[in-house]
Amino acid sequence: MTLLLQQLLNGFSLGAIYALIALGYTMVYGTLQLINFAHGEVYMMGAFAALYLAKVSGVADNPTIPGAIVVMLGAMAFCAVLGMTIERVAYRPLRNSSRLNMLITAIGVSLLLQNLGLLMFGALQDFPSLLPEARWTVSGVMVRSNDLVIFGVTATLMVVLTWIVERTQLGRAMRAVSHSRDAAALMGIPADRIVVATFAIGSVLAGAAAVLVAMDKHTIRPDMGMTFGLKAFVAAVLGGIGSVPGAVAGGLLLGLAETLVSGYVSSTFRDAIAFLLLILILLYKPSGLFGKHVPEKV
Amino acid sequence: MRLATHFLAAFLAACSGGLAACGGGGADEPKEIVVGEYGSLTGTAATFGISTDNGIKMATEEQNAKGGIAGVPIRVVVEDDQSKAEEAATAVNKLLSRDRPVAILGEVSSSRTLAAAPLAQAAGVPMISPSSTSPKVTQVGDYIFRTCFIDPFQGTAIAKFAYTSKGVRKVAILKDVKNDYSVGLAQFFSETFTQMGGTVIGEEAYSEADVDFKAQLTSMIALQPEALFVPGYYTEVGLIARQARELGFTGLLLGGDGWDSSKLVEIGGEAIIGNYFTNHYSVDDPNPEVQAFIAKYQAKYGEKPDGLAALGYDSARILYQSMEAVAADPAMLAGLADRSSVPATKGARDAARKALRDQIAKTSGFKGVTGTITMDADRNPTKPAVVVEVTADGTRFVEAIAP
């Protein structure tokens, strides 16, 4: 029982990160029907931005809660700017060309950023603790302060995001653009600006995820966006790409599936079995857990 | 910056190669002897490639200061494989077709050497891997050599240390399932350890570039092993150590030469200190030759050489010593230096490479920094291993284990 609880805790803490990154994929897909493959690299850049910020601001030498918040907000702001820049430079000029062109551009931007990261940051760097770390044993289960930080930050960001999407003018506009960009534009909604805002919000979440992973794992590397980006993309598809609650559910489910398969079945075939489960779910619900079935117009 | 230098070097090499080819070669005085090197200068295992490269550079400078090979200077052309097996094959292909080196040095990782070695074997170019320990490496063919011990021995050494010196009876293994070295070493360790009377109570796997090992560690720690054997590379090992300690594991962590990097303590922090791994040499070795090497290396690069730097240095020196022996014959010297693309001289070049191969195979009693090296019939040296303890500022010698 203790073992199961520990594995569930491990799974949720991994899944929460997948969920945060998956939200970026799903939001961009919702408005542009574009799979933004560069999203994983925005996440990677966020981690390196946080590292430099932590070093420059001195938080690296003296970890405190306000210091950690400053670094996290800084990394989130950096990611927002980076996400908006990518949209402006790489995607907007192609807005009216075929979706395949945009997809290929996205892969190009991803490779460009990854190699830029390799050139600028080298192989691998260690990341300092941003917060004093602690551990408690609660009836046999090892609870780490970092897990609690991950849950706390993720939950807060989810609440804020839901509030933005459901309750604000911006959220209403985003939903309208997602429904139909042309119709939204005809109703006087500045569609381009809304798309930029979507990129910014998705990237902010990636930045937060990057800081959470970096401060927990203590190493960051230029290819870190690959694995997490791919897994988060799968989580977004599993939850129903385009759906915000779907991305969250998909991320948590993938994290749990990986951990439980690894812990109880076989760690050698972890990815294979976890992904097989996902394929089965998608066979049963092709549009994902929370996705709406949209008939293709011919 | 480092990358830029390499690109520049590669570019210059390409230019001069082209010029030499245009010149037609043949009766000209040999100007230089080109040796190829490929390694992980960037990517996940970057310190492996950089350390090896440092060691090779030092050996090359020393050899050139002595007048190179019979008066002909050596030039080493370096290709980066970004720590990827497919890039390793590309890098060696590039070296073979563009630079036509007389021999190739590399790689550290067994998976990457295995990807590239068949190309060198097919081209008839001798290749010396400084530190690929998987037995499969030299089985590729008779042109493939190494200067380190092999994993069946390394696995035995660490198993003996765990069982005899540390009194460990119950071990769990966490291996990198996509890495030939890790899978092999796990198997050899497990065989010896069980033979001695110990029990392997759990075996779990991860994949390179994973950052979360808590699921595997949770199930392993629940079995209450006295030690955890992690035959991986330093990047993942550091993270595994941290997460194992965070989950409450208090036993020993044991590993192989893949742990050998100055980055290990940076990544693993407190969690990795006080644990043990097998290595090729120790910086505490009182042997004056070893200490002289360490002093020279430290003066040049500002840090203590790790085992990979020492092996890189030894490999290059074995190669240069063999080249000197072959070059005693002036016709062979011309063959060693010949890089022209004119097919007419190909016979002489191949003969020189063949002679070089035979000479490397004859290496016997070579006094290296990493021990005395004698190539056996399978082109593997027989050498002792050392067990070292991880300390805050590097490693500390614990014991030597004879083959």
Q: What structural class do the secondary elements of chain A suggest?
A: mainly alpha
Please identify the oligomeric state: heterodimer
Under CATH at level 1, the class of chain A stands as Mainly Alpha
Shape of chain B: elongated
Query: Helical proportion of chain B?
Result: 40-55%
What's the total count of β strands of chain A? 4
Helix content of chain A: over 70%
Distance between the termini of chain A: 53 Å
Estimated radius of gyration of chain A: 19 Å
Give the neighbour order of strands across the main sheet of chain B: 7-6-8-9-10-13-14
Q: Alpha-carbon distance between the termini of chain B?
A: 42 Å
Number of domains of chain A: 1
Query: What is the CATH level 1 assignment of the largest domain in chain B?
Result: Alpha Beta
Low-confidence residue ranges of chain A: none
Biggest sheet statistics of chain A:
2 strands, antiparallel
Order of helices and strands of chain B: HEHEHEHEEHEHEHEHEHEHHHHEEEE
Average of the residue pLDDT scores of chain B: 89
The chain pair forming the largest interface, with residue counts per chain, is:
A-B, 37 and 35 residues
CATH topology of chain A: ABC transporter involved in vitamin B12 uptake, BtuC
Question: What is the strand and helix layout of this fold?
Answer:
The complex is a heterodimer of chains A (298) and B (403).
Chain A lengths: L1 H31 L6 H19 L7 H27 L7 H23 L3 E2 L8 E4 L2 E4 H23 L1 H11 L1 H6 L4 H27 L1 E2 L3 H16 L4 H22 L4 H15 L14
Antiparallel strand pairs in A: 1-4, 2-3
Helix pairs in contact in A: 1-5, 1-8, 1-9, 1-10, 2-3, 2-4, 2-8, 2-9, 3-8, 5-6, 5-8, 6-8, 9-10, 10-11
Chain B lengths: L1 H22 L9 E7 L6 H20 L8 E7 L4 H15 L3 E3 L4 H14 L3 E3 L14 E3 L4 H15 L4 E7 L3 H17 L2 E8 L7 H9 L4 E3 L4 H13 L5 E4 L7 H6 L7 E4 L8 H14 L5 H20 L3 H8 L8 H16 L4 E3 L2 E3 L11 E7 L2 E8 L2
Parallel strand pairs in B: 1-2, 1-3, 3-4, 4-5, 6-7, 6-8, 8-9, 9-10
Antiparallel strand pairs in B: 10-13, 11-12, 13-14
Helix pairs in contact in B: 2-11, 3-4, 5-6, 11-13, 12-13
